[in-house]
Design brief:
The structure is a homotetramer.
Chain A lengths: L3 E2 L4 E6 L5 E7 L9 H9 L19 E4 L1 E2 L2 E2 L4 E6 L21 H7 L17 H16 L4 E9 L2 E2 L18 H16 L6 E8 L13 H9 L5 E6 L10 H4 L3 E4 L2 E4 L7 E2 L2 E2 L4 E7 L9 E4 L6 E4 L10 H23 L4
Antiparallel strand pairs in A: 1-2, 2-3, 3-7, 4-7, 5-6, 8-9, 8-10, 10-16, 11-16, 12-13, 14-15, 17-18
Helix pairs in contact in A: 1-3, 3-7, 5-7
Chain lengths: 355, 355, 355, 355
Amino acid sequence: MSSSYGENIRMTIFGQSHSAAIGMTLEGIPAGKKLDFDELAAFLSRRAPGKNAYSTPRKEADTPEFLCGIVGDTTCGTPLTAIIRNTNTRSADYSQLKTLPRPGHADYTAEVKYHGAQDYAGGGHFSGRLTAPLCIAGGICKQLLKQEGIEIISRIAAIGGIEDEGVLRASTAEKEFPVVSDLQGERMKARIAEAKAQGDSVGGIIECAVLNLPVGLGDPMFGGMENHIAQIVFGIPAVKGLEFGAGFAVSQMTGSENNDAFCIENRTVRTETNHCGGILGGITNGMPLTFRAAFKPTPSIAMAQKSVNLETGEQTELSVTGRHDPCIVPRAVPCVEAAAAIAVYDAWLGRKKEV
Amino acid sequence: MSSSYGENIRMTIFGQSHSAAIGMTLEGIPAGKKLDFDELAAFLSRRAPGKNAYSTPRKEADTPEFLCGIVGDTTCGTPLTAIIRNTNTRSADYSQLKTLPRPGHADYTAEVKYHGAQDYAGGGHFSGRLTAPLCIAGGICKQLLKQEGIEIISRIAAIGGIEDEGVLRASTAEKEFPVVSDLQGERMKARIAEAKAQGDSVGGIIECAVLNLPVGLGDPMFGGMENHIAQIVFGIPAVKGLEFGAGFAVSQMTGSENNDAFCIENRTVRTETNHCGGILGGITNGMPLTFRAAFKPTPSIAMAQKSVNLETGEQTELSVTGRHDPCIVPRAVPCVEAAAAIAVYDAWLGRKKEV
Amino acid sequence: MSSSYGENIRMTIFGQSHSAAIGMTLEGIPAGKKLDFDELAAFLSRRAPGKNAYSTPRKEADTPEFLCGIVGDTTCGTPLTAIIRNTNTRSADYSQLKTLPRPGHADYTAEVKYHGAQDYAGGGHFSGRLTAPLCIAGGICKQLLKQEGIEIISRIAAIGGIEDEGVLRASTAEKEFPVVSDLQGERMKARIAEAKAQGDSVGGIIECAVLNLPVGLGDPMFGGMENHIAQIVFGIPAVKGLEFGAGFAVSQMTGSENNDAFCIENRTVRTETNHCGGILGGITNGMPLTFRAAFKPTPSIAMAQKSVNLETGEQTELSVTGRHDPCIVPRAVPCVEAAAAIAVYDAWLGRKKEV
Amino acid sequence: MSSSYGENIRMTIFGQSHSAAIGMTLEGIPAGKKLDFDELAAFLSRRAPGKNAYSTPRKEADTPEFLCGIVGDTTCGTPLTAIIRNTNTRSADYSQLKTLPRPGHADYTAEVKYHGAQDYAGGGHFSGRLTAPLCIAGGICKQLLKQEGIEIISRIAAIGGIEDEGVLRASTAEKEFPVVSDLQGERMKARIAEAKAQGDSVGGIIECAVLNLPVGLGDPMFGGMENHIAQIVFGIPAVKGLEFGAGFAVSQMTGSENNDAFCIENRTVRTETNHCGGILGGITNGMPLTFRAAFKPTPSIAMAQKSVNLETGEQTELSVTGRHDPCIVPRAVPCVEAAAAIAVYDAWLGRKKEV
């Protein structure tokens, strides 16, 4: 099922942008795990819109209501369901989407796939708003991993071609604009502001690392860590590329350059470099699991664009009004962490069956 | 299960490099479909080793034996199983893998994961040899898609940083060295020969396109065409990056540049450009579905490399002997087509449930 | 995942008896299907408690709120989620369940499985209340099947050893007490009343039939109609036996008696008898699909029972207070229909992939 | 997929009665488990035909060849595949099945489902012969459970209405004709001989028990032990009914009779009776897990039967020639054990994820 993910846990996301509510169900979480709801709220707030100049001014009441699966603050072994009410809906903004598909959006493909019955208001199930329940599930998994000593960190690696500098570290994610180099961060913000002023938008790259993983998570073939992570990360709207470790750069390297030499550190097997991104044969090798995801520029732009009228077949022009992020990347950072957390926690539980 | 893939069909790959046989089972293929076994043999031969200077001199008897699932040349609705006997095994080559893990290989991660019980001979289940059954399954799906008018084509896009030039077309895949520009192809071959002479290896990029797709295959969220394709393509050993359409380049574009304008051609909705790679919201839009996969250089190299002795914990040196491809990319081209064919055929069948 | 069911559609049930809400998500329903919410409400009311002398006097506000998956009264292709708030909770009734497990209930097995973290109030996720979301999903599937001409009917076949008489027909299910023979129905009610007066309870059998099925639904092996139906029907609390067609009686028959002879009726292949319950080799043969499910007597009884104190290990006595059905069978009739509807609709959609 | 089973392990069965081979793949078995191939052969021989007067005189070379998944006698963590060649095929016996469907068989439903492309020789994928790979998988799982101290035993509970007497014990399964009462066993054999002499067949019931289970296997709802076992047991051809513990008899009991009182034995929580068959809320309670499966009489009988000609639509008569078991029940005993072993081992592994 396309709205579900996971083998050892199972997350199901439901809701449309303008339906009564959106939410998620998480099955398979062991009983007796404590959750910190303040920490979860703080995690969700990193994704929330309306906080600054480079995100949409829309306000979303992203406080989840937990319907079940917990007793007090502790999981009880049954499916966890949490919902978020859709309150700030402005359906009038979206009336033309059915006949006049926005370039870069799913309006046209949804119209054909669902033969006209799709919920087109606000992008329906395709809306970036659906990453809120993803972050609920991911925020929970992130906490459960943290209880096992596993950390997930991330940063904006690039926006509009402007790259961050320096090495990703845990404190980076705490920042309001999560880059290592604040100077580069200012340049990125200026690039976003420039695009916004032009009625345009920009894309970027997010880098993520999972730290302190045990050796042995993941499987060969289609159950590799790359496969698992890819399957969920490409579920974040706007992701068009994904690479692990040195990624596409490996295509230009020789084996002697790319192979990560084994060594011993503190009586532990490590590698001197980490071009493989902590994954060998689909399986974690104890080094940081690292990946980068490429985000396309927000397709909703104020500038005039060419489209066609699906009813008349006529060529026409379109300008997307409404409140949109000129760059989705800053708000997508916790979404990437969430996706990684869910994939890794799934593999973590799966590992237990192997003895 | 890590060796299985698919939702509407289900492929399971089994076997180790030096076990009695390797093979695959394909469930869910409709009954009454004609298969062309000569065409399948031709497809498999594109992956076979030992054909030229830039692949391993090992000979593999890659002729599959079909055990069931067909009556004559026609599917009968039950699982199709085909096996390939492992005949040309030289176990003596691999005796040191258990204590002396090869950099870039899964020797170490498998040792930990399977607590010493893994089949390490020839890389076991992690061997590139396991792509032979992938190609059987993919070759079948490719034929079934062709019966519906859908074509899958591919090429070597780059090797060792040397890029192909020109536009991918159907005839490219027919070539013995599948590049558009034969001049660039010669340069790539020279780069491979150079690496081989140095006891080294090189990586590269494969580009693939699926043509004549109907609008509406794939789903939002985790069932998108990107997710489906990623889940299987990362199962091909050595893939470390994957991008759709303009891929990582979208991170440097503005919305007005990246958005593909809708237009009408021959009374059909098309887009003027195809930066989205034929996928909007996870769903095919009728344009060619395009993606590129980055392959790391073959980790097995003759040059000396640093490793550790897992028993003694001592730092040591290692030189991988045996017969290895200095560049896996040429032989991986049909594997990428196979993976795409399986993912797309799965989505093709899934589409039928939606009315 | 244990709270989910289905291959072509996927139903997930969530909630505990005394959590904020219970509910269900149904993925995979095609877009553009009209739902009749009045009909659904009527279906759900057949399961509702508090209506008469032989069910619990508890009132449950079983009106589902649909959160998403529909636009107006029409499915839009995304997951349907509906919830029911838990309002009439009396947690004080259940305080002793954790240390003093009720015989016939899951109190003890849950305590061990969830290592003390289970939600024991009201039986938690094991409560019969969780059949309400099952009936929402089943009521929807029943409507979708009806749109295809397929009907599902059922009756109370026996209670406390008193058997209904006559042949099951569509009108039976409309009755407030769904039996063919009202005389036998009165005897059943008297048996329930007698048990209630004694602080005891009684079990029974429910018979269900699916009419107008096409030939060809279901699959050999583990995807047979029997397997699919069994997997969901045993998910209804209290079911301890299931039989198809002549069921256990076939064990006493000869092949010549049991084999259903083929014949032609109205130019259609039929069978003269229907001992196979409309299923041959797991696949529907066009005759009515019939099955019977055995329900154990409600384990919650006022009579004193022996149990043990899990903390002290002492033998003790227990009397279950609170409001309980002396016989769950009448209210379970729509649950059985719901389960059948979900299983059959899943097979219905799966059939479309086979051409 | 209909030929696959399992959530934590995954068994896939392939092959048709007269294809080149039949076989099975078992994914998810942990690495490092020792298998006893002599014990497996002994287990398989309990299912083999041709041993005595009450089974078919066909000889089947049921010796499995293991293709992969093991190194020596030890699992290596990759999929286990074993095949059995089909040698003793007599295709001429089956020429009329396509147009003249045998009553009680899947000939007609397969013809419609696979629109004429099914492999009808010998019943194809519907043949009882496909229980041989089920027994390979089950024999392996039985050994793995035994290594954990869990035993699976079974017996013929009834044939043709003649019931076994006495209590099932471990030694019963060792017998060539596995009944507790040899006297009743002789009566059953006489009943089979009688049916055979008449060109007819008889059905029966098999009882199975799983001993020494820990408390806590299985899940609520659709992941209960009943659901898991039902899903696989109904995959054994000819099973038309299934009941757990007291089964259908619970429908005639009161709660005070049926509820199993908790007690303490050897400092362990037990129940005085075991009407629930060791399962409460879908979860094992530490008592023996018991169930009974009803088998229909072999549909292949020499006596003349009514059928229709699918081509001409004419009513006709049919006599099934060839070598068939007059009663399948004795040979089905290990199949039931195999099914139980697979289901229980799957739950055993799943239990590990819950902490």
